What does this fold into?
Amino acid sequence: MRSFDQYGNVMLEDTYERHVIGNVFADERVGLYVIRGENLVLLGELDQDKENAKLREVSLKEIQDKRAEAKLERAEDEVLRKKLAQQALGLGFEDCL
It folds into this structure.
């Protein structure tokens, strides 16, 4: 922590944003980070050994690829759901939707 003020605003130095999907993670360097006091609920230190024991580190590119795949799957599921809903409307199942 670099500094804080009487309003609870906090300035963090040398920060990383952790992206987690399933049991894999990647850290993205953010650098200097300012958090407004109204958005701050809890501040504490993370035990890196315990945290990393549960997760496996991968590259940020792999995490981004996994996110893109998941987004594509959700979009495909939504298209299928809409198709099925349209078919159900024609069969008299309007009350079931």
